[in-house]
Design a protein that fits this description.
Blueprint (H helix, E strand, L loop, with lengths): L2 H30 L5 H8 L3 H8 L2 H26 L3 H18 L1 H7 L7 H23 L9 H17 L5 H15 L10
């Protein structure tokens, strides 16, 4: 075998290993969050833990290789969809419900909210974009009376972080109980104009 063909095979093997690791990481992070042991990712990918470090430089590199697909695409889609809803009351109802749904379904999203790995630039950028969207949507809802006047963007941030902590470290509620509590939350923060969307 020539040196050229041998090199091509090694590069193909490396690409295949990288894709196997990415696929395994997405599955593991979706199910258990970003703190899942790398040994589990390596086992699912059929490689050694050392191979993850060789290909991605460790956990942070691996997170940054998949976080766009894993979390950012879904969160940004929620934000874009919320911005497109004309009725302000409906907009904030959708946004909060969709955020809490994403928290329930996607443990990795809670790790992003909790800034579990602050050395990841991509993770922190997702937090920045999410924070700006929170400020924007809460300000618009306040301007139209769709929220209680004392409810702030900081309150929303605290609520989603508290929920992230409860889901990550507490007993996981049933989906029915979780959705019922989402309705309680919405009822508690709605303002006098929320029924008509502030129009």
């Amino acid at each position: 075998m020539s040196a050229v063909s041998s090199g091509s095979r090694l590069r193909a093997d490396a690409r295949r290993n990288s894709e196997q690791i990415r696929f395994a990481a997405i599955g593991a992070f979706q199910g258990q969050g970003l703190t899942v042991p790398l040994e589990e990712v390596a086992k699912a990918a059929g490689v050694s833990k050392a191979t993850i470090f060789n290909r991605f430089g460790g956990r942070i590199g691996l997170i940054e290789a998949v976080i766009e697909e894993l979390v950012a695409s879904e969160l940004f889609a929620v934000i874009d969809r919320a911005r497109a809803i004309a009725d302000v009351g409906d907009r904030i109802t959708y946004y909060l419900t969709a955020l809490r749904d994403l928290q329930y379904r996607q443990p990795a999203f809670n790790d992003v909210l909790l800034q579990t790995y602050p050395h990841s630039q991509q993770l922190m950028e997702i937090c920045r974009v999410g924070s700006e969207a929170n400020d924007e949507l809460i300000a618009a809802a306040q301007a139209f009376g769709a929220l209680r006047p004392e409810f702030t963007a900081g309150d929303l941030h605290a609520l989603v972080v508290d929920n992230a902590l409860a889901l990550k470290y507490g007993k996981r509620p049933s989906r029915d109980d979780y959705d019922r509590r989402t309705m309680y939350l919405l009822d508690g923060i709605r303002g006098p104009s929320s029924g008509s969307g502030g129009r």
